[in-house]
Amino acid sequence: MEESENILYNNLKEAFMLREDITFFNFGSFGACPKPIFEEYQRFQRELEYEPVQFIVNKGPEYMKESRVRLAEYLTCDSDDLVYVPNPTYAVNIVARSLDLKAGDEVLSTNIEYGACDRTWDFYCAEKGAKYIKQTISLPLTSKEAFLSDFWKGFSDKTRLVFLSQITSATGLILPVKEICEEAKRRGVLVFIDGAHVPGHIPLNLTELNADFYTGACHKWMLTPKGSSFLHVKSEHQKQLDPLVVSWGYKSDFPSQSQFLDYHQFNGTRDFSAYLTIPKAIAFMKWNNWLGEAEDCRILVQKWLPRLCELVGSKPLAPVTDEFIGQMGSIPVECDNPIDLKNILYNEFKIEIPVMVQNGQAYIRFSINVFNTEEDLVRLENALKDLKERKLIF
User: Fold this and answer.
1) Which ranges of the sequence are coiled-coil (predicted)?
2) I want to staple 364 with a disulfide (CB 3.0 to 4.6 A). Which of 21, 57, 178, 331 is the partner?
């Protein structure tokens, strides 16, 4: 897998295949894949179809290993501590199913986590007689210290694992997970960080963070095709993780040096081409000054978030600084029907933007990436004014 020389764009909007007639503010849900990375995806898919057996049995595993090495360099970790998974929810299921929870044990989280992960912990905790504690976080946040104070109020001598997002889904907030990891270690409990929105969005050094378990999506802010994510597990915990799907890697006839990889990397026949595009995505970001571009996007979010909140009569969910706000901003709104509101924004105004509800509060979450402009945000502002005049937002 070699880096292409033709991945430098003067206008990065041209790199994306998004519809011209849609104002796209929902990068946070599934991302969008630039043309060179998508072409790499299709190149691997064609190679798969030219000789399926050789690809899946021989070449594919070598490609996968090379891809993991490149991702590990990007995330600052050991490649043998990474396995690829289709999405972070899959990774959470691996850990939740395998964790040796007993009746009465507790998993401490927050009440602003991603719904699919909440459901996963509810399911496995109920199965094992444990409790999933969704500690209430006071919003808006006033400081990092206030968040930490709220969070640790949920800790008890029964807490066995801390689970929380580094960047939340509905609220779009960046949480102080480094401090959480440090304090959890001091208290002697494991930490699992859901970093679905992190890679390609804000800097991530897994060695420095030192979480026991970490999952992140590559198909969001890291620009790869859909269905490419990873699970990072510290070496001392790997053998306790059972395969979510039992396949040929379990008690393998040809074991590798890593049970972790044998158990979790191959789960039967599937197209894993999306995983193999990660080196191309890293090269694309490097060539196109992604850190600088991300900073410009973050500045745009921070400029417009207070303005849009004021328009609908609400306030930002935290101080509008790099500490809490990245390339996503969530606007608290009052409305009768969030689903209808989302559909109206799309059908009438051609704006693709999520309207989510958490703890009874609706949020319009806008994501900004390199193809978005001030004109896009003016379009959103005008749409919100119209909806407010029609009393669809109040």
Assistant:
1) none
2) 331
